[in-house]
Amino acid sequence: xxxxxxxxxxxxxxxxxxxxxxxxxxxxxxxxxxxxxxxxxxxxxxxxxxxxxxxxxxxxxxxxxxxxxxxxxxxxxxxxxxxxxxxxxxxxxxxxxxxxxxxxxxxxxxxxxxxxxxxxxxxxxxxxxxxxxxxxxxxxxxxxxxxxxxxxxxxxxxxxxxxxxxxxxxxxxx
Length: 174
What we know:
The chain is α+β, with helices and mostly antiparallel strands. Helices cover 29% and strands 29% of the residues. The strands form two sheets. Strands 2, 4, 5, 6, 8 and 9 form a six-stranded mixed beta sheet that branches. A three-stranded antiparallel beta sheet has the order 1-3-7, with no helix packed on it. Strand 8 and strand 9 (110-119) form a beta hairpin.
């Protein structure tokens, strides 16, 4: 019994000493990401798209249009921009036809991220109204699944420790 307790305390102490090394680890550069100022705009209204990534990377923005009344639809790719200071930006002017503009971020020749902007009458005027999903509702979600898993693990470990302590006390009091 004492040997098991000593081993358990030793394991916990070892883990607590190893925990700070994760905080001091070297992490890879963040992946490139594309964000646009709006997800819905009026025909012909310009909006900005920004990509983030490692300095020195070559970024391009590729726009694909297919408006309702477009006589010619197709894909246009911007000139290469080299990331300096963590980001680069483009000003995008959609066609005067209603439809959708598909935007793709190309980093060092490889497509990495996408965004979609809906072109419709009464679209976003740059003040954030109309941003979100196609129906104008705000986009929601949870991007920190790692935090959720970690919190769940802590709850399970805490519950196990409490159950162990209760069982131990009941065995000692008999």
